[in-house]
Amino acid sequence: MLRLPPFTYLAPRTIEKAVGMLGETGPDGMAVAGGTDLYPNMKRRQFEPTTLIGLRGIPELHRLAGDPRRGVTVGACVTLTRLAAEPSVAGAYRALAVAASAVSTPPLRNMGTLGGNLCLDTRCNYYNQTYHWRKSIGFCMKKDGDICLVAPGSPRCWAVSSTDTAPAAIALGAQLRLAGPAGERVIPAAELYRDDGIQHLAKAPEEILVDVMLPPADGWRSTYWKLRRRGSFDFPILGVAAALRIAPDGRIDDVRIWLGGVASHPVEAPNAAALLRGQRPSDELLARAAQAASQPSRPLDNADLTIGYRKKMTRVYVERALRELTGLPFDGAPGGLH
Questions:
Q1: pTM to 2 decimals?
Q2: 325, 151, 118, 304: which is closest to 223 by C-alpha?
Q3: Backbone angles phi, psi at 258, to 5 degrees
Q4: pLDDT per residue over 205-239, tens digit each?
Q5: Which domains, ranges and CATH numbers included, belong to the chain?
Q6: CB-side exposure of 76: number of CA atoms within 13 Å?
Q7: Which of 36, 97, 240, 291 would staple 90 via disulfide (CB 3.0–4.6 Å)?
Q8: At what angle do helices 283-294 and 307-326 cross, to 10 degrees?
Q9: 201, 202, 205, 209: CA torsion to nearest 10
Q10: Is the pLDDT of residue 335 over 70?
């Protein structure tokens, strides 16, 4: 049995107090909300904080307010279960609701939070193992070692971004509010992520993600498709978030396509979007766009299933997502759990 190491738990009631505690504890402290990823990582000694600053007691982080006409604000501690069931999100911002419902299993979605999933640690078959397993193969540079076991000649870590909600939030044009010692700042969701398996978040350790601000829906429709070995529990080995708006004349006015599970950060497919803008949906057009979207997908041998299969499925899932959004027929159930 893997056991948690000893730690001190602090329970601030305000964002300002939590930020102060993170600053005081420095590298020995970490913030925790649902803990569905942090606690298992602590059991495997991938994270070794001596102090945890709990965020669940801060009322502001549980706020869920607004409507699709004005925009919706979702606090970082809103659970994935609540987010998926919220009518104002499930309709106008469907990609985010589907992504939230696709995370893990019901008990973990009841504990896991939107902020926690957005800030999820990157994953790798060589990293997400017990301490003794990792020790037996010599560790990796993400924790305790000095080489990447996926690409031993590489100077960087190639652990994979495995958050379901990040591609969806980015495709929807969400903005994130962060609070830190210098005050608050607002950034586009895409700017939270770096293409680095170790330093994968572009926020300071003492900063806290406060909430996610979804813009007015304004005619956008969206979906999320997830590939994993099992129908539940598993992390994505591919996530496709697509958002699309149809003009009154039936042409595609605008589109955004983002991929998860294929790199150390969510990956945009701008060439596919460029092919679609201003065009009327057709079988041939969507197939070409899906092929273009698969080009930036470069999976490595550090997640489930084979590289070639995952690369092929990028094209398949992008086309299915686009068919769902444009109303063209496709095989399978709409969005989400695949």
A1: 0.96
A2: 325
A3: -130, 140
A4: 999 999 999 999 999 999 999 999 998 889 999 99
A5: 59-119+160-214 (3.30.465.10), 221-337 (3.30.390.50)
A6: 26
A7: 97
A8: 140
A9: -80
A10: no
